């Protein structure tokens, strides 16, 4: 079963707010000068910010804020966030792989930015709301 | 980038307790756009059976990232932090983190490999309350990029 795609807009302001809230002040997430110096096309989103957005999608599908039992991803491609009002967009979709006897649901998740996958092996196990 | 493989299996001493504040959870939830009342309103969280506001699923990284400095900054291991990129991340929950938790982290190095000139380091952080209740296990794999 496929779950409805959810779209998240990401701007530079979001990255600055996430840096402050998470304590991850790596300059590749706010300084083009630093990002390009280490060979990136420009400022990129924190991998953990992308994962947090996927977490929002997963809890929304599950229908409960405390649904997540297991959640893992591999970061495969950076999410470049241009310094524009629009920023960029991350699309998150998932398929239900399995519903176990003890009431847990296993999801395989896909996250893309500009049509390219940014995560692999993204999986979540959730307890769906009744 | 060559990391010392003899570090596999090493467990570090427990970190000082991290006090999970209600406002910190609200700040983190706001930063990721998570508006569910259980992340913001203690009454909404209590209605779901939690003692106070609960944290979104990736919140523990706030605690474990600080705790992992113990490993990253261990000069004997030899991680050059300026060359580090995040590889994998996983959370396996016993229960959600809630405001009021006092969390202690125990870091273990699970895997150290070198492939294609890059170093790979997998750590497991067992996050429990100061009283010893298991809350969440967190795995993180970092890649230390070689000098190309």
Oligomer: heterodimer
| Helix count, DSSP H or I runs of 4 or more residues of chain B | 4
User: Which CATH class of chain B applies here?
Assistant: Alpha Beta
Mean pLDDT of chain B: 94
Distance between the termini of chain A: 17 Å
Order of helices and strands of chain B: EHHHHEEEE
Helix content of chain A: 25-40%
Strand content of chain B: 25-35%
Radius of gyration of chain B: 17 Å
Output the number of helix runs of chain A. Answer: 3
**Which regions of chain B are unreliable across 5 or more consecutive residues at pLDDT < 50?**
none
Strand content of chain A: 35-45%
Q: How are helices and strands ordered from N to C of chain A?
A: EHHHEEEEE
Question: Order of strands in the sheet with the most strands of chain B?
Answer: 1-3-4-5-2
- Tally of individual domains of chain A: 1
- Largest sheet: number of strands, sense, barrel closure of chain A: 6 strands, antiparallel
Assign an overall shape of chain A: elongated
* Total DSSP E strands of chain B: 5
Global structural class of chain A: alpha+beta
Overview of this structure, please?
Chain B: This is UPF0336 protein EFE23_09890. With 130 residues, chain A is an alpha+beta fold. Chain A has three helices and six strands, in the order E-H-H-H-E-E-E-E-E. Chain A has helices spanning 12-22, 32-37, 47-62, and strands at residues 2-10, 68-75, 88-99, 104-113, 116-117, 119-127. In chain A, strand 3 and strand 4 (104-113) form a beta hairpin. The longest helix of chain A has 16 residues, at 47-62. Chain A is elongated and about 50 Å long. Chain A starts with a strand and ends with a strand. The relative contact order of chain A is 0.23. The mean pLDDT of chain A is 95. Chain B is α+β, with helices and mostly antiparallel strands. Chain B has one domain (5-144): Thiol Ester Dehydrase, Chain A (Roll), CATH 3.10.129. Chain B has four helices and five strands. Chain B has helices at residues 22-31, 42-47, 60-67, 69-72; strands at 18-19, 84-93, 102-115, 118-129, 134-144. The longest helix of chain B has 10 residues, at 22-31. In chain B, 37% of the residues are buried. The mean pLDDT of chain B is 94. At the A-B interface, helix 1, helix 3 and strand 2 of A face helix 1, helix 3 and strand 2 of B. Strand 2 (68-75) of chain A pairs antiparallel with strand 2 (84-93) of chain B.
């Amino acid at each position: 079963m496929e779950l409805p795609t959810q779209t998240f807009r990401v701007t530079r302001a979001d990255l600055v707010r996430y840096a402050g809230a998470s304590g991850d002040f790596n300059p590749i997430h706010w300084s083009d000068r630093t990002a390009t110096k280490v060979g990136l096309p420009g400022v990129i989103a924190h991998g953990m910010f992308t994962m947090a957005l996927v977490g929002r999608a997963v809890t929304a599908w599950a229908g409960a804020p405390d649904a997540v039992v297991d959640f893992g991803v591999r970061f495969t491609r950076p999410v470049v966030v241009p310094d524009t009002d629009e920023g960029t967009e991350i699309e998150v979709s998932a398929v239900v792989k399995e519903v176990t006897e003890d009431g847990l649901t296993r999801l395989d998740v896909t996250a893309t930015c500009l049509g390219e996958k940014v995560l692999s092996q993204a999986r979540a196990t959730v307890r769906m709301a009744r | 980038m060559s990391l010392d493989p003899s570090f596999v299996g090493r467990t570090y001493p427990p970190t000082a307790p991290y006090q999970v504040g209600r406002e910190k959870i609200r700040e983190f939830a706001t930063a990721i756009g998570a508006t569910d009342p259980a992340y913001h309103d203690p009454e909404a969280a209590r209605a779901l059976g939690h003692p106070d506001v609960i944290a979104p699923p990736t919140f523990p990284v706030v605690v474990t990232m600080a705790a992992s400095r113990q490993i990253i900054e261990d000069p004997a291991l030899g991680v050059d932090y300026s060359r580090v990129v995040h590889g994998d991340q996983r959370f396996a929950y016993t229960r959600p983190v809630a405001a009021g938790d006092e969390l202690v982290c125990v870091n273990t190095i699970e895997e150290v490999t070198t492939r294609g000139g890059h170093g790979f380091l997998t750590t497991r952080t067992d996050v429990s309350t100061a009283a010893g209740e298991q809350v969440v296990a967190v795995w993180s794999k970092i890649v230390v990029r070689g000098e190309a």
